[in-house]
Amino acid sequence: MQVKRLEKRLTIAERLAIPEILKGLAFTFRIMFRKRVTRQYPEERYEAPIAAKGQPLLVENEDGTPRCVACSMCEVVCPPKAITITGGETEREIEREPEEFRIDMLRCILCGLCEEVCPKEAIVMSDRLELADFTRESLVFDKRRLLTPVSELSNRIRYTKEKYDKWHSPSS
Ligand code: SF4
Ligand code: SF4
Q1: Is 73 close to ligand 1, i.e. is its CB under 6 Å away?
Q2: Ligand 2 site: residues with CB under 6 angstroms?
Q3: Rounded alpha-carbon distances, angstroms, from residue 23 to 17, 19, 26, 28
Q4: Alpha carbon of 115 to those of 35, 44, 78, 152: distances in Å?
């Protein structure tokens, strides 16, 4: 018995994919006259929104002292173990502060968990997104490089206070 062929016979235009080519060209012409979205980086800089999670930084108080109390909560919670803290005693009211505080930016995944757990709002995510250098060592930031005046980080601190609502006590 002969098997009946059910395949549709293609026209010449279909064989040459002319309808698809015309659709593609029409799409290209439509896009050509839209507003450009390409950024001419680095001449045109990117203004990161306040929600952006760039490099974590340590908050430096107005009197030049670190806000961090070396509780190590950020060190414990950091998924890739990018944070290393050596705590030390201090004569100040807070009693403890970091003698050394290192963040290995080659490990950091910019997750923001350190910022989220910190009970003192002493570490915050910044808008620094250009994290590239020529050596591995230069991307391990020490306390000196991490400490940033509170005035430069106040917008982010305000934003996280609202976002995480850390100090909200639910009414019983
Ligand atoms: S942002 Fe995430 S990965 Fe980076 S140091 Fe903080 S907790 Fe660790
Ligand atoms: S940055 Fe915050 S969570 Fe990390 S050790 Fe200092 S006080 Fe604790």
Answers
A1: no
A2: 68-74, 85, 117-118, 120, 122-123
A3: 10, 6, 5, 9
A4: 37, 29, 10, 16
Q: Give dist(CA 39, CA 58) in Å, integer.
A: 31
Q: What is the pLDDT of residues 38-97, one digit of tens each?
A: 889 889 988 899 999 999 999 999 999 999 999 999 999 999 999 999 999 998 888 899
Question: 């952006």: which residue's tokens?
Answer: 52
| Ligand that comes closest to the CA of residue 94 | 2
Domains and CATH numbers, the chain: 56-164 (3.30.70.3270)
Q: Is this structure's pTM higher than 0.85?
A: no
Locate 129 and state its tokens: 């997104």
For residue 141 the two structure tokens come to 């930031």
